[in-house]
Amino acid sequence: MPASSPRPSPWPGLRPQRAGRRLFTLAALAGAVVLGSATAPAAAQPEAWPTKPIRLVVGYAAGGATDVVARLVAVKMGEQLGQPMLVDNRAGANSNLGAEIVARAAPDGYTLYVYTIANTINASLYPRLGYDPVKDFELAGLMAKIPNILVVNPKLPIRSVADYVRYAKSSKEGLTFASSGAGSSIHLSGEMFKMQSGLNMLHVPYKGSAPAITDLMGGQVDSMFDNAPSSLPHVQAGKLRAIAVTSAQRLPQLPDVPTLAEAGYAGFDVQSWFALAAPAGTPRLVIDRLNAALAKVLAAPDVRQRLQDLAATPAGGTPEQARAFAAAEIQRWREVVKASGASAQ
């Protein structure tokens, strides 16, 4: 195969692909032409991509926010690409199982991954991973972002962030905040607030959002920085009280609930997010086609409405912007993980 110049990667630490080192003579070049003609179908394959169904691996069980967003995008992208995109749920180890499967897959565009905030947290949360969150993936673009909501049990005398702070300071035991598991974005949203506020807050991990929400409504724990799609129905039903959102903008569904930045914590902006990724080494032509299809999907009015119903906002952007964003998230969460002392095996 003729040598080519490596494309510099915007991912920190990502090694460029090795260029060929052989010096070809005229005779060798002639031989290469013959060899190239023999391998033409393989070289031309990306031009025809896709010619068969595409598998989209989700690192979580069906029904969660990641799965719901993935299925919405998958159906619409299949229509754009002319081949069905089939969701494959591979739950386990805070999405690491699914990530490892895709990292080891052939870089041909037929096995993709929903890369999330969890992967950027896992980069420092786990001392050892079976994949490299940076070097093993090519990001094609961001799908959507979902904020968290700081919710409390409505029986508590807490109606604002100021009340929350006063309650934590006046309580001998401090405030408890539940999460869907140690190291989750829900947990680390609470840890980030704890760092900024200096409050006495005790983390109570659960095996998923559902049991955590159940105990929060039952009064076994005081609060939670929960994903908006999970807690919003309970807020609207009066079973939970929302006192702040973690994004930089307010939620349209909760226009009277301020952001944490508005409540005095400048720069606080935490959202769960989802990106479309492929194994490292996937041809740039495939990445560009995925990005173009994703952009059309996210611009569709019915998709935007469905995302709004989920309290999500479409993200989009170029592959380079997605990679730069993920790299910044890895650095940000590394500092939070270190400060919180959280770890996983």
Automatic annotation (TrEMBL):
It holds the Pfam family TctC. Belongs to the UPF0065 (bug) family. It comes from Pseudacidovorax intermedius. Residues 1-42 form the signal peptide. The lineage of its organism: Bacteria, Pseudomonadati, Pseudomonadota, Betaproteobacteria, Burkholderiales. This is Tripartite-type tricarboxylate transporter receptor subunit TctC. Keywords: Receptor, Signal.
